[in-house]
Each structure stands twice: as structure tokens, then as C-alpha cells.
Design brief:
Elements: H1 2-19, E1 22-24, E2 35-39, H2 46-53, E3 58-63, H3 71-83, E4 87-89, H4 95-109, E5 113-116, E6 128-130, H5 134-142, E7 146-152, H6 154-157, E8 171-174, H7 190-208, E9 212-216, H8 217-234
Parallel strand pairs: 1-8, 2-5, 2-7, 3-4, 3-5, 6-9
Antiparallel strand pairs: 7-8
Length: about 250
């Protein structure tokens, strides 16, 4: 009930007003049955804009941090994400990754749409990063199609660190469903998982037109933060960016 009110009465109309989304290829999203919608991830707004325009309900795997924040704000955020049907995911890897896959498979077994960002985290610079193989594992195990999706303009509208989005037009583009029945029974084969994931990422890249970087987004983000900290420690005149200190 809360999901429907949010989508059709509260948040949905507001998002359409702010972003005036141009929607392309919506006919590729199946009207019934299980499927995965795999998209790029550029902004916090992505969680809400795409589900708001898809006629069917989309359940996303959301990072666990959205459900564990401290204080009143943390409790309200957790209640909001649970209310819209999002599933918390621990991104620490190993056993946590297997639990995330199990949660996603449970959604698909119910014949629902599962939304996932194969990059694993938001892009910090607007580029498209290497996909993690959880999406491939779920697609093969469940035997469901994967619909690639590209969000275009949400990075400019609300990049990381910006609380309120800019009022501007964005584009949401869906591609033809990808099916991977030829990999049936190969969900534990790492080469098959990588091949499927790369095919999905290439489809997203074709739709989005982003620059592609063949490293994981989390690693690239950490490296960028390390460089920024090192630059801050050097300061003006202590590196190669200014005149020598007097």
C-alpha cells in the first residue's frame, strides 16, 4: 500500500515534475514474469526515478547502510526503504555476497522484477565501471532475462554529495532483454559469470554512451580518495603543482 501511494501520489509525480524523464524502450520491460533490470548507477535519485516510470513494481537490492543509520534520520530512512520494498544487501563480499544472491533469487522466484546495479556502487565521476558477477549468477540460476537500462543525466542532476537534485530533464533508456539459457548449469563457473556480466555491461554501455573503465567502481573511488588525501597533505608548494616553498 505504501509503495503504491509513494509511486502514484507522492514521490512519482514530484520526480516527473523535477526530471521530466524522456523514456525510451519501455516496451522491452516484460509485462509479466520474472526478470532482472540491470542499470548503471550515477545518482541517489536512480533508486526512485526508474521504478517510478516502470508500470510494474521493481524491487531493488539496496546497500545495507541505508537500513542501519543512527538516530531518528537513520530510522526514518530505514523505514522508507523497507516501505518501498527494498532489500538490504551487505557488500562486504564472501558469505554476504551469497546472501545477497539468495535474496535476489527469492524475488525472482515470485515472478517479480528485480532491479540491480552491477557496478555495486554509484559512479563517482560519471563513467561506467566493471560489473560484479552477482547479476550473472542470479540470471543463470533463475533462468530469467536481463533488461539493460541506462540512466542518462542523473549524474549531472544529483552527483554524489549533492542533497537536492537540479531541475533538469533526464533520459531513461531500456534495451532488448538479454537471455543466457546457453549458460544453464554454469552458475558456478567463474569464466561463464564474467562472460555474462561483461555482455550485460556492454549492453548498458551501448545504451548510455558512457566512457567505460575496466576496474571496479569501489576500487576506483578509493584510489581517487587516496589521491585527494595525498594532495591535501602535500599542500601548495610541497609537490609539483606550484612554485617551491620559500
Amino acid at each position: 500500500m505504501f509503495y503504491q501511494v509513494l509511486k502514484y501520489v507522492l514521490l512519482g509525480p514530484l520526480l516527473r515534475l523535477v526530471f521530466r524523464p524522456r523514456i525510451e524502450g519501455l516496451e522491452h520491460v516484460p509485462e509479466e514474469g520474472a526478470a532482472i533490470i540491470a542499470g548503471n548507477h550515477l545518482s541517489f535519485a536512480d533508486h526512485f526515478v526508474m521504478p517510478a516510470i516502470v508500470p510494474r513494481r521493481v524491487t531493488f537490492l539496496a546497500k545495507a547502510e541505508y537500513f542501519t543509520g543512527p538516530g531518528l534520520k537513520g530510522r526514518l530512512t530505514a523505514a522508507f526503504f523497507r516501505g518501498v520494498g527494498q532489500i538490504p544487501v551487505d557488500r562486504s563480499g564472501g558469505r554476504a555476497s551469497r546472501a545477497a544472491i539468495s535474496s535476489g533469487l527469492a524475488v525472482l522466484r515470485k515472478g517479480r522484477l528485480l532491479g540491480i546495479y552491477p557496478e555495486g556502487t554509484r559512479s563517482h565521476d560519471g563513467r561506467l565501471y566493471k560489473g560484479r558477477t552477482g547479476v550473472a549468477s542470479m540470471a543463470i540460476r533463475a533462468g530469467v532475462p536481463v533488461v539493460p537500462c541506462a540512466m542518462i543525466g542523473t549524474f549531472e542532476a544529483q552527483p554524489t554529495g549533492r542533497r537536492l537534485p537540479r531541475v533538469m530533464r533526464i533520459t531513461i533508456r531500456f534495451g532488448a532483454p538479454l537471455e543466457f539459457s546457453r549458460y544453464a548449469g554454469m552458475a558456478d563457473d567463474r569464466f561463464a559469470l564474467r562472460a555474462v556480466t561483461d555482455e550485460i555491461m556492454y549492453a548498458i554501455l551501448t545504451l548510455s554512451g558512457q566512457e567505460y573503465v575496466d576496474v571496479y567502481a569501489g576500487e576506483a573511488k578509493a584510489a581517487a580518495q587516496d589521491r585527494a588525501r595525498a594532495k591535501g597533505r602535500r599542500g601548495p608548494g610541497n609537490g609539483d603543482e606550484g612554485p617551491p616553498a620559500q
